[in-house]
Design brief:
binds flavin mononucleotide; about 40% helix; 4-stranded parallel β-sheet; alpha/beta; about 130 residues
Length: about 130
């Protein structure tokens, strides 16, 4: 899913995309948009994502006004991408316009296309003059 999102975002000229499995909290401030892929385990986000936000908050890293989006694979309830989006919006005051994008277990081709479109829309938002 992350690769498809990145591919969609890269389709726009002038947009630089980084696809990372892990990023230190201090680097979050370097990006204009942050798109997080997170699966749902035990009705929650994974601990690495939780720690990332905890650390960003502790170090008072400002993400205010940055564009945020989430996506993720799930089995039956799929809360994690929504929970992450709420933290982005309510705690870090990020700009959220997209609903979480979910894939049941393994994403099919149609879902991967939706991932690409999500990446492209986010990139377009960044390129649009304020
Ligand atoms: C221990 C365990 C707990 C899980 N808990 C949930 C859950 O609470 N809700 C849900 O929708 N899916 C749950 N799942 C299913 C996973 O979200 C699903 O397998 C998903 O595709 C995993 O994505 P990943 O391969 O990117 O880690 C759970 C899976 C495991 C193994």
């Amino acid at each position: 899913m992350a690769e498809a999102v990145a591919e969609g975002a890269k389709a726009l000229q002038g947009v630089e995309v980084e696809l990372n499995y892990y990023v230190p909290a201090e680097t979050l401030g370097d990006y204009d948009a942050i798109m997080i892929g997170v699966p749902t385990y035990h009705h929650d986000m994974t601990i690495d994502i939780k720690n990332l936000f905890e650390e960003a908050a502790e170090k008072k890293i400002s993400l205010k006004g940055k564009v945020g989006a989430t996506f993720g694979s799930y089995g039956w309830s799929g809360e994690a991408p929504k929970l992450v989006l709420e933290i982005m919006k309510n705690k870090f005051e990020m700009s959220i316009t997209e609903r979480p994008l979910l894939a049941k277990y393994v994403p099919d081709q149609a879902t991967l296309e939706r991932c690409k479109e999500l990446g492209k829309r986010i990139a377009e938002r960044l390129m649009r003059p304020a």
